[in-house]
Amino acid sequence: MSVQLAGASGKGIDFLLELRSEEIPARMQAKAREDLSRLFVGELAKAGIAAPRITTYATPRRLVLIAHDLPEATEAVREEVKGPRASAPPQALEGFLRKTGLTREALTERDGVLFAVTEVPGRETAQVLSVAIPAIVRAFPWPKSMRWGTASLSPESPRWVRPLQGIVALFGSEVIRCEVAGVTSGAVTLGHRFHHAGPVTIGSAGDYVGKLREAQVIVDQDERAAIIAVGAKMAAQGAGLRLVEDEGLLAENAGLTEWPVPLIGRFDEAFLSVPPEVIQLTARVNQKYFVCRDGDGKLANAFVCTANIDATDGGDRIVAGNAKVLAARLSDAKFFYETDLKTRLEDQLPRLDKIVFHEKLGTVADKVERVAKLARWLVESGVVEGADPAHAERAARLAKADLVTGMVGEFPELQGLMGGYYAAAQGEPADVAAAVRDHYKPVGQGDDVPTAPVTVAVALADKLDTLRGFFLIEELPTGSKDPFALRRAALGVIRLVTANGLRGELGRWLTQAVDLHLETALRRMGREVPSEPLYLSVQGDDRRLMAGDAEVLRFPIDRTAPFYGGVGAAGLHPAPPIDFFADRLKVQQREAGVRHDLIDAVFALGGEDDLVRLLARVHALQAFVTTEDGANLLAGYKRAANILKKEAPGASRHIAETGEEDPLSEVEDPEFASIAAEYVRTEREKRDYAREPAEAALVTALDAAEPRAAAAVEAEDFAGAMAALASLRAPIDAFFTDVTVNDADPHKRAARLALLARVRDAVHRVADFSKIEG
Questions:
Q1: Which of 372, 669, 672, 731 could bond to 701 as cystine, CB 3.0-4.6 Å?
Q2: 8-state DSSP, 342
Q3: Is pTM beyond 0.70 here?
Q4: For residue range 466-500, what is the model confidence (pLDDT) as tens digits?
Q5: Are residues 563 and 536 in the same domain?
Q6: For the purposes of burial, counting CB atoms within 10 Å of the CB of 751, is it exposed (0-12), middle (13-18) or buried (19 or more)?
Q7: 613 near 602, Cβ under 8 Å?
Q8: What's the sign of the alpha-carbon dihedral 416, 420, 421, 422?
Q9: What is the domain range of residue 88?
Q10: What are the φ/ψ torsions at residue 657 (nearest 5 degrees)?
Q11: What total of structural domains would you count in the chain?
């Protein structure tokens, strides 16, 4: 169906919609504004009305939309529905007539096709709005909503985030009449709950913001946030302190107030014995307060709260009340902290055996055992240099102990951090305490990357264990779902490796991790763990867990075989998830401006899982392909590869048809390179020919470039390898200009195809150019 929308008639008119209710949670307000705008635009579009510009506001008590320059009415709309051909069978015509409700005579015929054309009369925008408002309320996607009043007895009654109390709907100065959940629209709203008694009558959208400001309501959430930001800084500066800024807390305070007034208060200095992160989190999460620092950068015994009234006493009573509540919260935190300090971290470890990490991967205690062994191995094998292996193992064994402390039980966000404090307090070496504190890092893209060797070893081991374990049991991310944060863990591994220049084969690290998971499985099954490395092998219909040449366990390849306490043997996926890392590497490097196809080109060579070396190769490749030599070599390579793909099998058949002895005649492999090269080598002794100058020049260039490129790659001088390849550009161009590859002489044809195969293989020493776009 095609619809021709009419233009507006008359001058543009502003429309105001205020949906007033009891308190809207601050965390829901930003999304609610987006949803209100989206639903409003959708409802108007159904009537063929476009809203040129929309403004939305949210306060704790109201959700507001102003649509600017709406038409007073729409003109007639002409709708056209395409039907069957005029010569179609009667059944098709009858079906179309039933669908449109028209007769055959009312249809229009054009070029042998029937159309149903109808004129829909224009509608007044006010009529459209009166229908749209109830539809928006009913369709609103609040994360949580409720029914209220007598209407709530029916499951069909409207729902809202809190009971809806009033609707202002003005099109210009005209009230749009509608009724939702027993609330009738009008032009009257309410001002500030405490500062303004009585109703506020709105004349139009144009005076809405101003009239509410007079009633001490600032409807613009951005203006409220700016008032809080400036006022909080000034309050801190007035006390000789510096405000600890927090954008999320700023937005939350703006969502909690309609007339914000920042106030500064103090708490007992005795609470400063608690770690500053605990104080800040207590103030932020429980009370929505900002904290301050003194001139030395240390946390001060001060907080900034945001009142919703302009108190006559300057806010003294408000500050006193808030200080009393904060003191109670800090007392709890101080109790947890001091109680936790009485128990050493290693004494908490037995409790980890009662916490399930994953039903198929054992307990947190099992994970701690694996991570401790892997962290030590990473140091002893030279992956992480400069760390004491005993310290790495010690830190890994203590890293999860704070999960069972009182403080982390109250504030899970502090896991790791509190362990670091407790480790330092009990006299652990500084590098051990730091590793306990920071082993979860980096958590997100903007998080700091650890550089202390012991911390790097533990953080890397923790993430490798998680990744390998969940790939082992095939609990993989799907689409946007990643319940075990495996993408984040892979990005963490990549950032740890690249930031610290860790050298080694990622596949080897993951293999070591899977061995430790297999050991966990054996222990859980009550079997002895062999001293030799474990590995999986497949024999017939069975999978075998081997230690050296000895079979440890055999089980059928199906999902009913018991392993890991019930997981099927098919869930033991032995291959390292290198491809998964390749995808994450592309995401991580995209922000650095690295092209994803170049990462694919290097990964496609296979066997390259040293991420530092891989990225050095990628960066050199990106610098090369953006040059004229690189672009022309890429074009020459693709031409050579396309010829090989198309012509090589045909060359084999052609030579076979001549009746001459041909080692290619029984081979159907379309990849001609190695076969053709062998053919040329053996046949050259029987029949050689004088190469054309451009052909000979390419051979000479390859003879020089191939060893240079190979030596440069071996030395990890990838820029030098690119320079060696660049010397092939002119000879390749001349070859394609002057030489006929598909020569009538089958021997020349085979030799020239083999030469192109040498070109392709020389380029593949650096990257698979077939993966490069352009």
A1: 731
A2: T
A3: yes
A4: 998 888 777 888 888 899 999 999 999 999 999 99
A5: yes
A6: buried
A7: no
A8: positive
A9: 77-120
A10: -70, -20
A11: 5
